[in-house]
Amino acid sequence: MKQPYWTASNEGPDPEEWNDLRAPSTEWPWPDDFHYYQSGTNQRARFLAQAERETNPGTTTEELSDDLVQDMIEILLRHKGAKLFVDNGAFPEMVEKDNKPTWPKPITDAQWVRRLGWYDRFARALGPRVLLVLPDQVASQQGTLARLAAYADEIRAIMSHGAHAVLALQGGEWDRAEFWRVCMSVLEGNGVPNLDKVRPGLPLTVKARPPPDDEIADILRRLDPRPEAVHFLGRGVQSEKYAGTFRAATRVLPGLQVSSDSKNVTGKMMGARTRTMGPYLIAFDALKDLGLPPREVERMAWHMALDAMDDKKLIQALAAGSYDENSGVESGLEQLQELARDEVESTVEQLVDPDWWKKR
Q: Which residues is 167 bridged to in the sheet?
């Protein structure tokens, strides 16, 4: 089986090619627990493909169902090299109006109870292999504190199973470092165990209005209690802004473990950021004519697209100067998608065995 890219035992690019992405305190290879989670994995066949490759899928509670949760657990119990990231689904409830955050349709208590019930199932089955975003309210510190207190019983049970958790550092009246301290005090006061497994999450999507890297460094420097890890919410290694944020975080907190999630890879696989079909859709169209079961078509197409859009290829292309600096990251993505289409088209004719990907 192909080794997952973010595994310390796997060979990677020459360390000298990583000068722009490595902090002074960081040694190659990356630590075992440096993780990127590919968000947007919300269908069983796609989830299975990622688990088979021992890469880390990410999903959100908005897209879950009882059956899908059970499928995910069974798949991950068979494929123990993969870890799982689950977002709480709070982001869409925030809507900006007149340049201010509003929450016209807040998540109901019944919805939170159901989502946290899924969290509990994941935590019981997977323990430290799952990373869960704790209840929060986007762009509201008071709303986040209220939800942490309201669902303290559920959080206490979830954390007792050894799961890892992300506490999103929302902006507001408190400085974010102070907000971390207040939130951790709320959790501790409610008897939540294993607080060393809670890491701060920095909301870094455009909609979240992320702070600049120097401010991020200042926030992390002042965190008390000092976390063992940090999570970049919505900023994966493919982002042109990732390197600066990574350097800022690891320089002020040497030895800090870094995890991140984004839908960037999923979007590229679908062709969402270009006007042409992405490698997944190309592979799917080619495979469906072979007469295979629909789920096998989807699983195999996802494997092919993941091969084509591998993070390793993206990083190596960056290190090799494949990106056009004048036109930015989009030019690089288009170049890589051209390579992806060539790879997909050359592989389709060889598909006679559903386990073809194990032999590649």
A: 200
pLDDT tens for residues 253-306? 988 888 999 887 777 777 765 556 677 887 787 777 767 788 888 888 888 777
Instruction: State the pLDDT at residue 34.
Output: 54
Comparing CA positions, the residue from 347, 97, 359, 91 lying closest to residue 233 is 91
The rounded distance, in Å, linking the Cα atoms of 295 and 301 is 10
- What whole-number distance in Å separates Cα of residue 174 and Cα of residue 161? 31
CA distance 257 to 271: 31
- CB neighbours of residue 94 within 10 Å: 19
Give DSSP secondary structure letters for 141-194.
Answer: HHHHHHHHHHTHHHHHHHHTTT-EEEEE---SSS-HHHHHHHHHHHHHHTT---
Match 């069983």 to its residue by tokens. Answer: 44
Q: What is the pLDDT of residues 71-125, one digit of tens each?
A: 999 999 999 989 999 999 999 999 999 989 999 999 999 999 999 999 999 999 9
Beta strands in the chain (DSSP E): 35-38, 58-60, 84-87, 95-97, 100-102, 130-133, 164-168, 198-203, 229-233, 257-262
> Residue 235 and residue 331: Cα distance in Å, rounded?
19
Tell me the whole-structure pTM to 2 decimals.
0.80
The rounded percent of the chain whose pLDDT value lies above 70 is 73
- Alpha-carbon gap, residue 198 to 179, rounded angstroms: 14
Whole-angstrom distance, CA of residue 259 vs CA of residue 35: 5
